[in-house]
Amino acid sequence: MSQNIEITRIFDAPCELVYRAFTDPGQLAQWFGPDGCSVARDSIEIDARPGGQLRFVMTGPDVRSLVDVVFTEVAENQLLAGEMEATGVPGATGPLRVHLRVEFHDEGNGKTRLELRQGPFADGQLGADTSSGWESSFTKLDTLL
Question: Are strands 45-46 and 63-75 parallel, antiparallel or unpaired?
């Protein structure tokens, strides 16, 4: 049975700063990846527009995953959505292909509510592991912001 993951997180920073953390290669390299994994700045390519791409390599102990997202929808400081393909994902047999949607909502008082949806995942454990990876990354993003 396939599943989608949904994560909502409040960041103590305005939408512009949270959005920039997703679209600026230098910032993305500082926070993206679950504990024990990292993304080298020089592996990141991003063109945040419909038809543009985000590409990077995430590495860690026994992990080397190439991630490629083709953006289908982009609204500056509000939305990043696209089709993602990742190879070398632990627990995945072959390339992982999922839809990714990240929304940035102004909560007032300089806070942002981020809503992330990703899937479908054919394997429930893979979805759970991906969700845990995002939560771990978001803890690092909290520190950066």
Answer: unpaired
Using CA atoms, how far apart are residues 94 and 79, in angstroms rounded to an integer? 28
CB neighbours of residue 19 within 10 Å: 22
Rounded Cα gap, residues 55 and 24, in angstroms: 12
pTM (2 decimals)?
0.94
For residue 110, give the nearest of 9, 11, 13 by alpha carbon: 13
d(CA 134, CA 58): 13
Number of other residues whose CB lies within 10 A of the CB of residue 118 = 19
- Reported as a single tens digit per residue, the pLDDT across 51-81 is 999 999 999 988 899 999 999 999 999 999 9
**Residue 90 CB: number of other CB atoms within 10 A?**
12
Distance between CA atoms of residues 56 and 44, nearest Å: 4
**DSSP helix/strand/coil, 20:** helix
- Taking only the tens place, the pLDDT of each residue in 12-48 is 999 999 999 999 999 999 999 999 999 999 999 999 9
